[in-house]
Amino acid sequence: MSFLTLEGIEAxxxxxxxxxxxxxxxxxxxxxxxxxxxxxxxxxxxxxxxRLLRHSAGQVQFDGKDMAALPPHKAAQAGLxxxxxxxxxxxxxxxxxxxxxxARPGPWDVSAVTRLFPRLAERRDQSAASLSGGEQQMLSxxxxxxxxxxxxxxxxxxxxxxPVVRQEIxxxxxxLKAETGMAILLVDKSLAELRQVADHAVIxxxxxxxxxxxxxxxxxxxxxxxxxx
Amino acid sequence: xxRARAVNLLLFAMLPVTALVALALDExxxxxxxxxxxxxxxxxxGLNIALGLGGLVSLGHAxxxxxxxxxxxxxxxxxxxxxxxxxxxxxxxxxxSMPVIWLTAAIIGAIAALLIGALSLRTSGVYFIMITLAxxxxxxxxxxxxxxxxxxxxxxxxxxxxxxxLNTLDPIQFFAIVFTLxxxxxxxxxxxxxxxxxxxLAAARQNPERVETVGxxxxxxRLLAFVISGAITALAGTLFADLNRFVSxxxxxxxxxxxxxxxxxxxxxxxxxxPVAGAALFILLEHILGGLSDFWHVYLGLLLLLVVLFAxxxxxxxxxxxxxxHD
Lengths: 229, 327
Hints:
The complex is a heterodimer of chains A (229) and B (327).
Chain A: E1 4-13, E2 16-26, E3 31-35, H1 42-49, E4 55-62, E5 65-66, H2 72-77, E6 80-83, H3 95-102, H4 110-116, H5 118-122, H6 133-146, E7 151-155, H7 163-180, E8 183-187, H8 191-197, E9 200-205, E10 208-214, H9 220-227
Parallel strand pairs in A: 3-8, 3-9, 6-7, 7-8
Antiparallel strand pairs in A: 1-2, 1-4, 4-5, 9-10
Chain B: H1 3-24, H2 28-53, H3 61-80, H4 98-120, H5 125-144, E1 155-156, H6 171-194, H7 196-206, H8 208-213, H9 218-244, E2 246-247, H10 254-267, H11 274-292, H12 296-310, H13 314-320
Antiparallel strand pairs in B: 1-2
Helix pairs in contact in B: 1-2, 1-6, 2-6, 2-9, 2-10, 2-11, 3-4, 3-5, 3-9, 3-10, 4-9, 6-7, 7-9, 10-11, 10-13, 11-12
């Protein structure tokens, strides 16, 4: 049994079906890239894992536990740490307060997060709303780490950021993989970066798996067919 | 020292300075006004935890204020009539001891808030406002129709309750008790707001879904805030009834809920010292304008309108600026 298993996941937004049988497996210490063009169900899959979206068919298991009945906060307590699309920090709290509000016992504390992102230490007493997009993204990642997750889910963590900041975020993700061995599920469009960090990949199209395998097996032809514009 | 801290310090000192000047001028009535302002500020600090930190617009906080008042009234009534409150299954006597009454009132307020909050926090927005209002009014009408404790006429207490080592009938000594309690509760409320619980509560107000994804239940956070808020408001109700040596259903009415909310808004929602500023201003207006016209609430309404339109952080926001991040 994998650390995270999704089998035949179907999910709806009202009457509209978004997922048509998504399968995904992730082992402890692995990094998996969840890819696909816009609107293909990547974020919906992340939402199903975090219980922000109920699935209508299929099974979600995390660390051998069926997640179906859990509310989102219980899923997070089970060890899921989400870095959501669009960052969504708590704007009126300071950087430090954003981190403390999410804190759960474990090795990740404010000093560990600020070691990973020294820029957050400089902005410690600033409100999150006054941070740049890149700093907010670092804060969002730091906040997820403060929950001391066993599986980190990053939904478009580098979307809309300046190239320099994107490099900082990718460096942090590589550091997390190398130093902590944390399982990570990544949604992103930067194939070149994903190739450096992910062990395997799952590609979705119209809410279904169309390709999955080792990252090294993802050829330019596959990328062109399923990820090209 | 930051401007916000200086304004807070000034506001905090305002009440005891007023009381001491009044003592020097032999004006016990002014001391009583300062005591009333401190008690209402305490009620406001209670509401501010739910409203300012948690974003819970409760129109039923008079329920806790009144329950605190009735806890005092009933215990003191049985003590002064030498009749037990309850004989079976175990004996409960009345008491005139302030600390015992405070503890009882805070526990009753917390239990009532737990019951009311457990139901009403399953809703939000206008439904939450209406449910809290409905609970408050249920208690109000219950008190009116309960003749054993005075019904509509209320319950008078002949002698103010006692505090070990102090003469509570002396206005300045009673003020000292009330102000010390206010200071302690303000200190604890400040610590609460800066603690992980307070930060998570503020975060739940801003984005409840995001709070869930970090493993916290917004419902539980809000319920705990509501319970703490109810306990503090009940404590204020006890002191208010003790000040007047009288408790009546008016303390439970929605007008009271509205008044507490008004001075929280006047002072600054979510600002720790907002209720102190708001309550002091409210008492000042009531005393000055109330002497000039029976319709002084019209001016209060105008002031509230101006604060809501032009000073979003209330008086403290206008004086100290937006230095506090939690607004």
